[in-house]
Amino acid sequence: MSGGSKKILSNSVWMIIQQIYSMITSLTVVALIARYLGPSDYGLINYCASVITIFTTVAGLGLDNVIVSEIIRNPDKEGGYLGTALVMRLAASFVSYPLLLGVVAVINPGNRILLAVAALQAAGMIFQTYDVLVYWFRIKLKMMYISIAMIIAITITSVFRIVLLVNKATVEWFALSLSVQAFAALIIITACFVKKADVRLRFSRKYAGELLRLSYNCIISTISIIIYMEADKIIIGKMSDSAQVGIYSAAVMLSTYWQFIPTALIDSSRPVVLEKRKTSREEYLEYFKLVMGGVNLMAFVFAVLMSCLGWIFIFVVYGDEYLGAYIPLIILSASAFIGISGYTRTIWITGEGFYKYEKWFAVTAAVLNIVLDVLFIWKMGIIGAALATLITYVYEVLIVPLFFKDTRVFTKLYFQSFRMIPRFSRESVRMIRSRLTGQ
Fold it and tell me: CA nearest 386: which of 400, 373, 404?
C-alpha cells in the first residue's frame, strides 16, 4: 500500500469517526429537540438555517477549492494565501450578518420570534471562519486534529442542548446552541493550528485580488448550489407553514446523513488526485474514476437502505408526527445518490481549471429548481419539493455538462466510474486489512 493511500485511509477514518460521533449525538439529541419543539418550532429553526446557509456560503467567497489547489501549486505562498483568506472570510461574514437579518425582516415582517432565532443562529456564521484554518489540515492530510476538535465542540453543544431540554427552554435558546458549537470549534481549531502549523499568516492585497479572480466563478456556482439546496424549505415556509418545513427537514436530514462517509473519501482524495494531475493525466483520471466509483457504491447502498427502512428511522428518531416525511425521504434518497457525484466532480473541475463551467451548471440548476419548487410545491406539497430536487440533481450532474464541449467528457467519466467499483472494493478491503494487521 502506497504512502498516499495510507494517508488517505487514515485521514478518511478520522473524518468518518468524527461524523459517526456527530451522527449518533445528533440522532439522539436533535431527535429529542424535534419531539420537544414539535414540527412547527423545529421547522422554524430549519427555515432560518436555510436562509443562514445561503448567506454563510456568500461569506465563504467560493474559496474552498481555490485555496486548496493554489497552495498545492504554490506551497511557498501558503501563509499569504491562508492569512489573506482568513481576513476576507471574516470581513465578508461581518457584512453578511446584518444583511441576513434585514432579508429575514423584509420577507417575514412582524415575526419577532423568527428574527430572534435568525439573529442567534447566524452568529455562528462569523465564528465559522475557522474553515480557513481547516484548509491547511486538509491539504496536509492531518484531519485527525480537526476531527478531535469537532468531537469536543459537538460534545459541548450536546450537553448545552440537554440542559436546555431539562429546563424546558424556548426555541430561541435552541437556535443559540448552533452558534455555541461554532464558537467552541473556533477556539479549539485555532489552538490546534497555532500548535501544529508552522505557518506565518499574513494578509496581502495582491493575494486577495488573485483569490477573488480565481474564485469568482466558484462564488457564483457555490451560491447557486446552496440556493437550490435550500430554496425548497424557504418556499415551503412561504407557501405552507413551519410544520411542513419541519417534516420536510426530517426527510432531508435522514436522506443525507450517510454522506459524511463518501465526503470524507472525496476530501481526503482531493490533494492526492490533484498532485497526480501534475505528473500523469492518465493516472490522474484513473484515480479520479476510482474515487467516484467508490462514492457511487456507497451512495447506492445507503440510498437503498434509507428507501426501504426510512419509515422506521422516522418513527424511532422523530416520532409519528413526522411520518409524512417517508415519501419525500425515498425521493430525496435517490437525489442524494445522484447529487454526491456533483461534489466528487469538484475535484475534476479543479484539476482541469473549468471553474467557469461550474458557474453555468449551478446557475441554470438553481433557476430550474426554483421554478419546479414553485410549481410542484403548489400542486403536491413537500412531495413536490422532493421531486423538484431529484430532477434538478439529474440535470445539474449528468445533463448540463453535455452542453459544453470541454465538460462533455465528465458524463462519460461518470458512467465509466461504475466499472471501477470492483477495483475500489478490492483495494479498500486490502487497505483495511493492512491497517488492522499493521503490515
Answer: 373
Spell out the alpha helix ranges (H) of 61-170.
Answer: 63-73, 78-107, 112-127, 131-139, 143-166
Q: For position 400, what pLDDT does the model report? A: 92
CA distance 435 to 439: 7
CA distance 429 to 407: 33
Domain chopping of the chain, boundaries = 3-437
Quote the CA–CA distance of 81 and 208 in Å, as a whole number.
8
Grid cell in block for residue 277 = 494531475
Instruction: Give the pLDDT confidence score for residue 2 in this predicted structure.
Output: 47
Q: How confident is the model at residue 10 (pLDDT cuts 50, 70, 90)?
A: low
Helix segments in 318-354, DSSP class H: 326-352
Q: Which burial class, exposed, middle or buried, applies to 437 when counting CB atoms under 10 A from its CB (0-12, 13-18, 19+)?
A: exposed
Given phi > 0 = left and psi -120 to 50 = alpha, else beta, which region is 351? alpha
Show Cβ contacts of residue 21 under 8 Å, excluding neighbours closer than 6 positions.
Answer: 151, 154
Query: CA-CA distance, 114 to 231, in Å (whole number)?
Result: 17
- Measure CA 416 to chain center: 25
What's the grid cell of residue 248? 420536510
Q: Does pTM top 0.85 for this prediction?
A: no
Taking phi first (over 0 means left), then psi (-120 to 50 degrees means alpha), and beta for anything else, what does residue 404 get?
A: beta
Angle between helix axes 131-139 and 63-73 (nearest 10 degrees) is: 40
| Pair 67, 84: CB distance under 8 Å | no
Q: What is the pLDDT of residues 112-148, one digit of tens each?
A: 887 888 888 888 888 888 888 888 887 777 777 888 8
